[in-house]
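Let's practice the habit of predicting before peeking. Look at the sequence and jot down your guess about where helices and strands might fall. Then scroll down.
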Amino acid sequence: MIHPSQALSGAVMRGSDETSGSLFSYVDLEERIPARHPLRTIRQVVNDALASLDAEFAALYTDFGRPSIPPERLIRASLIQLLFSVRSERQLMEQMQYNLLFRWFVGLGIDDPVWVPTVFTKNRDRLLTTEMSRKVMAAILAHREVAPLLSDDHFSVDGTLVKAWASMKSFQPKAADTPPDDDTGSPPGPDSPTEDHPEPTPSETDPMSRPTRQSRNADVDFRGEKRSNATHASTTDPDARLYKKAPGTGAMLCFIGHALMENRSGLIVQGDLTQADGHAERRAALDMIHRHSPGSTRQLTLGADKGFDSAAFVADLRQACVTPHVAQKSRYSAIDGRTNRHEGYALSIKHRKRIEEAFGWAKTVGGMAQTVYRGLERVRSRFILTMAANNLARLPRLLAA
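Done guessing? Here is the structure:
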């Protein structure tokens, strides 16, 4: 029976809002993560993949000097940044200070210190090269639970624009050879400025005038100015190119990201990124199919959109024992009846559209709509790692099916 005085005070039914003040925690990080959390499956696959790369990591480090950030933890931190759309590495380090889920995934204990953002960035630049990003993706795909999900014969390819971290105002005319200075040896005139008597500034001649300050982001009018990659280059990122993929759209400074997808589960098996031009997608498609199946004697199929319907590209695929399941253009198509009359051609045309899901995830979740990195190699390694993170995001549902 509740005493009337206790009922009036509300001390029984209402919880107490007092700080516990406990100094120690006896709950392990492993117990704080739900048993059915999808990151458990992802973490297990990543740990097994990184364990298979132990020899690769050992060859990158010397036996003396200060200890670096463990490469396994650095890669896990980069993957969690992509999976949870953390916009910068500085914010990633801040999140790892108090986010127990991030600490558990990366492998840090509750009391372990978090790295300085600049130290993490320098270590990431040295470790996550294009070659290492490809090895991480290949190790994930070679996992004993992931490999049975892949198709060995049927693939799709496509490309997407990745906006560069450069403003259109940085697209300036390329520097020309400057003429030599006029060194005639004649002495300066009486009114000429010299080293001892420099030319007076406007503020010295007019004490009431104020120095003009240029706006930090001044307006620039490009109307009527002809600009092209042959005559102009970005001063911010010289590797970026002015390009537009479709008629009627504005050109922008960008790169082109490429992906090779297997058609069974829709996982990306190869990724690449190149400078933007009209032939980059077809060149990258041939490179990726050769890199994924070198010297293959099986008859593969490759689905693609109408942009790949080129006589030279189709001939190169046939020479490489790859059946070109390319969507036909309305006129002058290189695809004839010996290809499109089969049922498999229609299936490849249907399944090739799933590659857009990977590009959509990379741009909305992975932060590749506009890269924050400069330089072709840095952007390429990040794009490939983003494609690997896209595969990881889909694995819990695929493995549970």
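How did you do? Residues 151-168+236-374 form a domain with the Nucleotidyltransferase; domain 5 fold (CATH 3.30.420).
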